[in-house]
Design goal:
Elements: E1 18-19, H1 23-47, H2 68-95, H3 98-103, H4 108-119, H5 133-157, H6 163-168, H7 172-199, H8 201-209, E2 213-214
Antiparallel strand pairs: 1-2
Helix pairs in contact: 1-2, 5-7, 7-8
The structure holds protoporphyrin IX containing FE (HEM).
Protoporphyrin IX containing FE (HEM) binds near residues 142 and 186.
Amino acid sequence: MSATYATTQPAAPGRARRRMHPLPVRIMHWTNVVAMAIMIPSGWGIYNDSVIVHGLHFPEEVRLGAWAAPSLLWHFAGMWLLMANGLAYLAYGIATGRFRERLLPIRVADIVQTVRETLRLHLAHEDLTTYNAVQKLLYIVVILAGISQVVTGLAIWKPVQFSGLVSLLGGFQTARLLHFIGMAVIVGFVVVHVALALLVPRTLAAMVTGGPELAARRDAR
Ligand code: HEM
């Protein structure tokens, strides 16, 4: 049986009360924001040295590091933070069942319905405690993109040591291209994600305070 979050039932006696975003999730989410704020603009600084998309250069104002060498130092410093925090988030999400509870199940029919409601401006967001199908999809995509960035990043950082990985990815240039595409997916996600958080500020407050308390899980695991 799948576990469900609900705010309507009181927590069972003796059970620890849980917030919608427990403290570890909030710490890891905001740590990830710092890591991304280092990784993305420093990556742009490195990219400029050998562009992938003809004519696309990132201007100085949006880069971290004046040129490729300092950008690389920032990128290498940030990658440990991104990797350690990402691994902790994955371990937490799997071990506590958070991924299963909050991100699954995800059905195509629900995605279509949410898109329709959004287009008709009928999207309900009274209940912050459950993610709609599009949110679930976007979070799954960005989590997978984060994993892909670490894997492709390792391949292009140490192509000799990780030569097996490089060939699995289709060669060094393909790994580089995949790393670039992963960045574009994450940047696209962040633009939409931050805009939505600002449109529904209660969700932003909840990612700071933890949000409403949740009832006990209906099924015991
Ligand atoms: C300043 C930038 C950001 C803001 C203001 C922000 C805000 C938020 C808010 C308000 C939520 C909760 C949404 C809800 O309850 O409906 C959330 C969740 C989430 N955010 Fe962000 N976010 C930011 C950056 C990022 C970045 C850079 C990523 C990843 C690349 C990210 C990934 C996620 C994920 C995966 C969740 C779901 C977490 C979970 O439930 O386990 N966010 N964010």
